[in-house]
Amino acid sequence: MGSSEGLTEWVRRAARGETSAYSELYRRTRPMVARLVAGFAPLDPDEVEDVIQETFVRAFKALPRLKEAGAFEAWLLSIARNRARTRLERKASTRRLEDDVADPEPETVPHIPEALQLERDIEVVRRLIAELPEGEEKRTVQLFYIEGELSAREIAEKLGVGKSAVTMRLERFRSRIKRELLRRVLAGRWE
Amino acid sequence: MRHLDADAMSALARREPEAVAYFREHLARPCDTCEDFLATHAGPNLLDGQVDAALLAAGPVAQKAKEAPLDEVGFARVRRGMKGSRPDIRRWGLAAGAIAACLLAVVVVPRMRAEDPAVQAGTEWDGIKGPGGSIDLELAVVARGANGELRRLDPQSAVAESDVLLLRYHATEAGTALLFQQRAGQGPELLGRFPLEAGMHDLQGPQGLAGVSLEGESGPVTLWLVGSAGRQEPTPDTVREVLVGGSAARERSRLAVTRFDVSVRSGQNRR
């Protein structure tokens, strides 16, 4: 899937230096970025805001060099994930302050056909959730991805489990989706 | 049996036929080893972003995003981050607990309050039907030092770069306030939007007590707290125009404008 309809044109306008395009891109994509970062339960609300800000500052600074405007959304979310992981690992002292997860280079991002596979990918997500055995992992995934209202921190409180446990469940499920989508990429779906 | 590792991911990113053929088959079945690797390693290419886009699109957030209002405060932070050459620093610290009220005899700062709305008809801030209420706003500021010590500030006080400024206000009406920071020779920058309650209160947002970090600052800094009564909420741009318009513009507007000036000493080991 590429950037949603209409987003690509705003990306092009921002790349041409139109200030208003940046605010429109921010308005349209901040909820997605915020939701992604909300899955990292050990980050407190202040850290979440910092990660969101850092994501957009990095993305907007590099945006004029983005090779494929249609890849903006996936590129932005990749940056957000990297920023959140870096912050989390530094917090857990597993990553040194000067180390950093490298963001995808804007000059080399591949072409992603506009919205080509979105509906099928959503079906993959829903099918894999449905196939999960009944239990805490399935409930966690449903609460975060399908109902989409509670943060991982709030889910931890609701289910009475540790914050890290919720993030681990979400990451474990996400890795299954990633395996499945990688397989589909290798099978040539985007070729 | 081969599993995903850094070499395999590089080969897949280059679309090497042998690697593609092998992992296309291998990944058709669940594999804990490969899934563990995928969970902790980015790529190939933008796959992570595509995965997250699919996951988020399965819930309501993508639809909500289409109608989401602009988070002006968040965007102001991003704009500042884009302009600034300084590293990303936390502009807003959240201090635990309230300021002890006993420390704060309210300092009345120069106040340029709104006049009666009845005589404000035709001024530049339009868009609100009917007369708006007026509001008086007073501001006091406390500095929290690096050692946690609190001290009340008088206007024009010298403060250290390591200080965090905590604000306390007195409002005659409930309403909304925008907080701006202005450095010498620059325009006012939006720091945040806050609800106001009638009476004396600490300035705080949804996440708790708000403080202004002075890290990276040097020289004169002005804090502007601009209040409006009730549900009247001027845009940041409207307020900015009033602030840069000088005293005449402030007196013409319906806004309650308070300012607090400090002088930031750069360097260490000061207070």
Characterization of the model:
- Chain B: Keywords: Membrane, Transmembrane, Transmembrane helix.
- The complex is a heterodimer of chains A (about 190) and B (about 270).
- Chain A is mainly α.
- Chain A folds into two domains: about 5-110, RNA polymerase sigma factor, region 2, helix turn helix motif (Rna Polymerase Sigma Factor, Chain: A), CATH 1.10.1740; about 120-185, Winged helix-like DNA-binding domain superfamily/Winged helix DNA-binding domain (Arc Repressor Mutant, subunit A, Orthogonal Bundle), CATH 1.10.10.10.
- Chain A has eight helices and no strands.
- The longest helix of chain A has 24 residues, at about 165-185.
- Chain A is globular.
- The two termini of chain A are about 15 Å apart.
- Chain B is α+β, with helices and mostly antiparallel strands and about 270 residues long.
- Chain B folds into two domains: about 5-65, no CATH class; about 90-265, Immunoglobulin-like (Sandwich), CATH 2.60.40.
- Helix content of chain B is about 25%, strand content about 30%.
- Chain B contains eight helices and 13 strands.
- In chain B, the strands form two sheets. In chain B, strands 1, 3, 4, 6, 9, 10 and 11 form a seven-stranded antiparallel beta sheet that branches. In chain B, strands 2, 5, 7, 8, 12 and 13 form a six-stranded mixed beta sheet that branches.
- In chain B, strand 3 (about 135-145) and strand 4 (about 150) form a beta hairpin.
- Chain B is elongated and about 75 Å long.
- Classes of the chains: A mainly alpha (about 190), B alpha+beta (about 270).
- Chains A and B meet through helix 2, helix 3, helix 4, helix 5 and helix 6 of A and helix 2, helix 3, helix 4, helix 5 and helix 6 of B.
